[in-house]
Amino acid sequence: MPKGTKKTPARHSLNCRGRLVRLDTPVVMGILNVTPDSFFAGSRVLDTGETLDRVLERAGQMLADGATFLDIGGYSTRPGAADISPDEEADRVLPAVEAIRRNYPDALLSVDTFRASVARQAVNAGAHLINDVGGGTLDPAIFATVAELKVPYVLMHTRGTPQTMQSLATYTNVTTEVIDEMAVQLAQLRSLGAVDIVLDPGFGFAKTPAQNFDLLSHLDAFSLFDEPLLVGLSRKTTIWKTLGITADEALNGTTVLNTIALQKGASILRVHDVREAVEAIKLTKELKFF
């Protein structure tokens, strides 16, 4: 597909445990990290001394700003982040899921985990979607688990682990190789009967800034899979290192790249700053890109 071609998102709905979420107009997923060490300090809600009140405050604000999904993560996947046990991850995530379900019963909750055991516990606690940054490569049981649970699943591309991924960012053609590697995982996932699959090219995961820009410029190539695309570029290194700023100053750059992603077929924007992403969708819609 030529660059600049207007592309409607591939699939127009997700069945979130009986609730239909339409994607003919893109939607926003707000990031809610229940970790002490995620790369962007503004997304952390369980630093030392904080309580679930802060989780609920941030969740409520993102919902008010227009988030369709809240993505709750208890394992930091920034490059070089420390590993934690499945039990510690679950201990961070499950209270947040349960508290949000009690206080915002209409909220659609995603859990950002690559572990089958955490995914199962999260869905049992009320989560609607699993967002796997390992793309099935970090826990061989997760594909069968999400297929059994019949919840939407985000299949992200990466290589290695958060501790090793940056040493594996070697490609001859990053877009072609990411597509080829994701095709293998997608075929396996489909063979197990998984439904409502969302693809995430994995910006920043085993990819350099130059490779991320190359991947974004060819994002419309992923339309060959006929699955919706999630794009997660929010405040990432690609933006702030290129501009010579910090993650705290990277909102404007995030909006620029999110707008390009929308023009190239993104169905879900995963972001720290919900209101600005919602505005980008509203304005881009006026240009008839979807």
Q: What do you see in this structure?
A:
The chain is an alpha/beta fold and about 290 residues long. About 40% of the residues lie in helices and about 15% in strands. The chain contains nine helices and ten strands. It has helices at about 50-65, 85-105, 115-125, 140-150, 175-190, 210-215, 235-245, 250-265, 275-285; strands at about 15, 20, 25-35, 70-75, 110, 130, 155, 195-200, 230, 270. The chain has an eight-stranded parallel beta sheet. A two-stranded antiparallel sheet has the order 1-2. Helix 1 packs across helix 2, helix 6 (about 210-215) packs across helix 7 and helix 8 (about 250-265) runs parallel beside helix 9 (about 275-285). Residues about 1-10 have low confidence and may be disordered.
Layout of SSEs?
Elements: E1 13-16, E2 19-22, E3 27-33, H1 52-65, E4 69-73, H2 86-103, E5 108-112, H3 116-125, E6 129-132, H4 142-149, E7 153-156, H5 174-191, E8 197-200, H6 209-217, E9 230-231, H7 237-243, H8 251-263, E10 268-271, H9 274-286
Parallel strand pairs: 3-4, 3-10, 4-5, 5-6, 6-7, 7-8, 9-10
Antiparallel strand pairs: 1-2
Helix pairs in contact: 1-2, 2-3, 3-4, 6-7, 8-9
